[in-house]
């Protein structure tokens, strides 16, 4: 039989007063509840913790004194843990665990973290790239404090704030004939070999963009990392369609690439930040606010190719 913290509280209060009625008055409960707690202690340990005397209240036995001392220690530890937990919830310290399904997160996540975290080294960062499902699983099971993910595929139980809506764009080598154009159409892209980002959500989305084209694309390569896609494009393996761009026009392979708006009206992908709205630590709140602030000001212009990038275009 287990003993609850409530029973320990009632028991130690009764022994401190030496009287069940006085303990009940302090605790603002019925005297029968205090008596029941004493009975639970007795049943759990198989000992007699107190002697009840009609006129003199209750007296602890030797065993009861030992049990009361242990219970008091446990209750004190419990109160300390709860106080420390409350302090942690309000502090900008501890561990911040972020899962992200955003291949170009290195282009903006360090800036966001620098803007919201204290510089005294009291925060330990854990950043993990993952797929969209794994990010959501990690938030729901407590592995991550916050996630960056594509919210078109959001589960009903995930709470999130939308950060940016990113239209697809075409990526070509700097020497490609498309690079001299202000924009490109899906029909033109379909005539070129295509390098496909083969990630969950992304691959099906990119294939679907060609549904209205008379001719589907010729696939030159599949790659599951954005930087590999960019390097393949920069070295002439084909064109690619992506949604977010880093802040550099150079690939890991050293070649330059050009991002072109696509003239066709196409569905976009939405980058969002997910978090637990019910149990948010102050540190997580700061991170979420910094994400919103970043993309509300400087962020979108850095990583999204929009119709405004075309001559006479509108956002």
UniProtKB/TrEMBL annotation:
Keywords noted in UniProt: DNA-binding, Transcription, Transcription regulation
Domain HTH lysR-type: start-end pairs: 1-61
GO MF annotation: an example: DNA-binding transcription factor activity
Any coiled-coil regions, as ranges: none
Signal peptide from the UniProt entry: none
Stored Pfam families: HTH_1, LysR_substrate
GO CC terms in record: protein-DNA complex
Transcription found in the keyword field: yes
Family membership: Belongs to the LysR transcriptional regulatory family.
Record-given protein name: LysR family transcriptional regulator
Gene source species: Yoonia rhodophyticola
